[in-house]
Amino acid sequence: MTEAHRPVAIVTGANRGTGLAIAAELHAGGWEAWGLNRTSAGQPWLAEAPCDLESADAVTAAVETVARRRGRIDSLVVNAVTRSLGRIGTLSLPDWRAAFEVNIVSVLPLLQAALPYLRPRKGSIVLMGSHAASRYFEGGAAYCASKAALKALAEVLLLEERPNGVRTTLISPGAIANEIGDDSPFKLSTSSVAQAVRWVVEAPADTAIGELELRPAHLPDMAVTGLNRLQAV
């Protein structure tokens, strides 16, 4: 495949963890991966457009940089996330706002900038959700609420853009071993999540995968099982 014909994917938050693994998996599959990152990943194979996702102007400029340099955008993977954790009674307003600014507010200018380039390519969008969108936990108000909003946005985007040939998928993983040295058998590896993303963006053109849920294959011993689960929440 010549350089001009390589499909181009934008991955936000591709400087570490899951985002870097997604970009690497796409690169290995013949895609040209572009990272939209606030800090550089420093990988020679990864093209990057510096971007602070909390600035709508910066988001638009970064997408336009990719489009100008490559003349096409075939896929957009919205991966960047802020995990603002804290109980409602003590959660700071700046942390609450930061979670929504990155996890949901920044997605709108990102989509609006990319859609004009994705439509002619009949491209794909992957929004990286989370089990937290429906499996709530103490201390997770900001994270859970922002991911629940992203889930709703994904479905509306699928409805609106499918007539234009753009397919949207929400990928909702459980726990991911994002930190270096985290080899928990009860978490998904970043590589496994990345392979799922590549499978989605390379799905047949007549297939729209609305949502893909990923769970770790192994479970720790459960404190509550069977019928007793009904009184465990």
Report the CATH superfamily. Answer: NAD(P)-binding Rossmann-like Domain
Portion in strands: 15-25%
Mean pLDDT: 93
Q: Give the terminus-to-terminus CA distance.
A: 53 Å
Taken together, the total number of domains comes to 1
* Largest sheet: number of strands, sense, barrel closure: 7 strands, parallel
Fraction of helical residues = 25-40%
What is the strand tally?
7
User: Per CATH, what is the topology?
Assistant: Rossmann fold
Q: Tell me the series of helices and strands, N- to C-terminal.
A: EHEEHEHHEHEHE
Quickly count the helices.
6
Unreliable residue runs: none
Query: Order of strands side by side in the largest beta sheet?
Result: 3-2-1-4-5-6-7
Q: What is the second-level CATH architecture?
A: 3-Layer(aba) Sandwich
Shape designation: globular
Rounded to an integer, what's the Rg over CA atoms?
18 Å
The top-level CATH class is: Alpha Beta
Structural class by SSE content: alpha/beta
Explain this structure to me?
It is a single chain. This protein is an alpha/beta fold and 233 residues long. The protein has helices at residues 17-28, 56-70, 93-105, 107-121, 141-161, 190-201, and strands at residues 8-12, 32-37, 47-50, 75-78, 124-128, 167-173, 211-214. Helix 2 (56-70) packs parallel to helix 4 (107-121) and helix 3 packs parallel to helix 5 (141-161). A 7-stranded parallel β-sheet has the order 3-2-1-4-5-6-7, sandwiched between helices. The protein has 6 helices and 7 strands; from the N terminus they run E-H-E-E-H-E-H-H-E-H-E-H-E. It is globular. It has one domain (3-231): NAD(P)-binding Rossmann-like Domain (Rossmann fold, 3-Layer(aba) Sandwich). It starts with 7 loop residues before the first strand and ends in a 19-residue tail after the last strand. The longest helix has 21 residues, at 141-161. It holds the Pfam family adh_short. It comes from Nonomuraea jabiensis. This is NAD(P)-dependent dehydrogenase (Short-subunit alcohol dehydrogenase family).
